[in-house]
Design a protein that fits this description.
single chain, alpha+beta, 6-stranded antiparallel sheet, 4-stranded antiparallel sheet, 17 helices, 15% strand, binds zinc ion, HNH endonuclease
Length: 503
């Protein structure tokens, strides 16, 4: 069959990604769109990529057009500065002034840079601008502990849904090439084209004063939606088909497309990270169409084919969709009863667990020789490894301290709260991002972990699973809590019960 564009019927062959490259799709199909119409959807693809950027960055997904895993940007709550977020690290994007003191005619600056290259660029710029300056010390690498990062993303919206509709349409065209060109999809394609135009014009968010072009594009969406009764033929869906298989991949996406020959329903389902779930009604197939459903699981963490997808086909329609009477009903209900928040919290938990296991794997390789070393050498090795994980140790510290704080407040002992807050206080004016006391707390926590790991290593039980427990679960929290909280609790219990002490 000739490869023609499903939008215009001209020769296809643009080499479009079936699942968006920016989300880690690795497969190209050159027979679905002409270059012009492939391009016409890029605004929608950019929008969905932006909505998911934090998740993809945290997970370490590599966009197919890039050599490096995804980086997202957020705002550091304490300083208001921009930070970049990747699976590897969170760091500032620009040099920062830590402190400045007047000295004679000039001033002494304490600066922090995101990396060595940035130091060099700064030095060059100072020279180019003709500033007189002397470095007072060589730059030293220091970890920076980030507290909360502000990163707000809205999922869905008209463009987000449009992007999912476009993805479903592309998969449908791949699996049902003849039907996709039969005109059956024309209303659906009109809709994806119309919303794509809005996205391409930067109209995903309502602008205060919109230019004529955008107003026209919005009006075109309204017209394109008429055949669907005025609402988009895609919606958030929280009723997955009964008996559906679990996704083949830990953080896999799933796209399902099918036809139910019984009434001709052409449908689709999309589940991103097995968490954000949508259903799509693409149209009605001619009478006599065969019933068939294709499900593709996509692994955004696969580097390349062939193990990046897992495809299944059945000659039934278990995934057929129930078009809601009011399109936003599903989402409204899911928000109201907490389904959506729970699903999202569950995804974040899975992401954290994934990070922890990755860390445990790396550390266990590095620490493998420890049982053959002398006690002193083993400790040095363990210290060196833990020195590279300040952010993870900080997570343990804050979990322990905040956990106790919440418990104390609940038990009516609010007066301990400031003491606990001080243990983990941030300081924007310090090189580490922490107050002196918090730095001491972090050092104590590290010491607690070193001691526990030394002991485990000597006993021959410092394996990968144990490292994961110490770096992120109960046993680690316990070890850290013992050392970090004991002095506070002791002082507090003495002052809280002076009679008992004097007795
Ligand atoms: Zn075309």
């Amino acid at each position: 069959m000739a490869k023609t564009c499903i939008v215009c019927g001209q020769a296809a062959g643009s080499g479009e990604h079936v699942f968006p490259a920016s989300l880690g799709g690795r497969r190209v199909n050159s027979g679905i769109y002409c270059p012009k119409h492939d391009n016409s959807y890029s605004g929608l693809v950019n929008e969905i990529a932006e909505q998911l950027d934090f998740l993809n960055a945290y997970l370490g997904v590599r966009p197919d057009h890039s050599k490096h895993p995804k980086t997202a940007y957020g705002e550091h709550t304490l300083t208001g500065e921009t930070v970049s977020i990747s699976a590897k690290e969170i760091k500032f994007t620009k040099p920062r002034v830590i402190s400045r003191t007047a000295v004679g005619e000039g001033e002494e600056l304490h600066l922090a840079f995101p990396n060595h290259q940035s130091v060099k660029q700064f030095a060059k710029k100072m020279e180019d601008d003709g500033h007189e300056w002397t470095p007072l010390s060589k730059p030293s690498a220091r970890p920076y502990i980030t507290g909360s990062i502000h990163h707000k993303r809205k999922f869905g919206g008209a463009c987000g849904l449009g992007a999912i509709a476009y993805m479903t349409q592309t998969f449908f065209a791949q699996e049902f090439p003849e039907l996709a060109r039969s005109g059956t999809l024309s209303n659906f394609i009109n809709y994806t084209q119309a919303i794509a135009k809005v996205a391409a014009l930067g109209g995903c968010e309502q602008q205060p004063e919109e230019r004529e072009e955008l107003i026209e594009a919005r009006a075109a969406v309204t017209v394109a939606l008429e055949p669907f009764g005025g609402t988009a033929p895609i919606w958030w869906d929280f009723s997955p088909p009964a008996g559906a298989r679990a996704n083949k991949f830990e953080f896999g996406h799933r796209v399902t497309v099918g036809i139910d020959g019984f009434d001709g329903q052409i449908y689709g389902r999309v589940a991103l990270f097995s968490t954000l779930t949508f259903a799509v009604h693409l149209g009605t197939a001619p009478q006599g169409s065969a019933t068939r459903e294709v499900t593709v699981d996509i692994d955004p963490l696969a580097e390349h084919p062939p193990h990046d997808i897992d495809k299944h086909q059945v000659l039934s329609a278990p995934g057929r969709v129930q078009v809601p009477e009011h399109a936003t009903e599903g989402l409204a209900n899911a928000l109201a009863d907490g389904t959506q928040q729970r699903a999202f919290a569950n995804l974040l938990e899975r992401l954290e667990e994934h990070q922890l296991l990755k860390l445990a794997r790396t550390m266990s390789t590095a620490l493998a020789p420890c049982s053959t070393l002398s006690l002193f050498e083993a400790r040095t090795l363990i210290e060196k490894e833990l020195d590279q994980q300040p952010q993870q140790i900080w997570r343990l510290v804050t979990a322990v301290v905040e956990g106790l704080r919440a418990e104390m407040v609940k038990g009516g002992m609010e007066n301990i709260a400031p003491v606990l807050d001080n243990l983990i206080a941030y300081d924007a004016q310090s090189a580490s991002g922490l107050s002196q006391q918090a730095e001491a707390t972090l050092a104590l926590a590290k010491a607690a972990l070193v001691a526990q790991m030394e002991q485990d290593c000597a006993a021959g039980v410092l394996h990968e699973e144990r490292i994961a427990e110490l770096m992120g679960r109960g046993p680690g929290l316990y070890a850290v809590g013992q050392l970090v909280l004991a002095p506070v609790l002791q002082v507090f219990s003495e002052s809280a019960h002076p009679n008992e002490v004097s007795r």
